[in-house]
Amino acid sequence: MKKIVLVAASIALLAAPALAENAKTEPKTVGNAAAEAKFSTVSKDEMFSSKLKGLNIVNQKDETVGEIADLALKNNQVDALILSVGGFLGMGEHYVAVSPSSVSVRYDAKNNKWLASMNTTKEALKAAPEFKYPK
Asked: What is the reported pTM?
């Protein structure tokens, strides 16, 4: 059951622009949820948040510059990727929030894995404003 919920949530996040287009017609609602469930077909090469979280980000020199630690959502869309940068074995690391458009994520079918890249340096990310989780 948890996998189904995670898949549905992941699809909703990544399909938010398409969902926003369909939201122009007002569905019947019960509480905050639509009265009727709508189902989608998901292919194996679609991105899931479970595959995105923990993904290392490399730069143009193939250096690891950070890791995707979390997603920040706003208005049912991914607003920022929270990156873990710096540190070693959890010591000295901090988080920065970057626009999803600044990170390229692609599927490497030959090696059956997801890859993320960003045009930046470790130093630039370490110098970026630190993101702190709201309390």
From this structure: 0.68
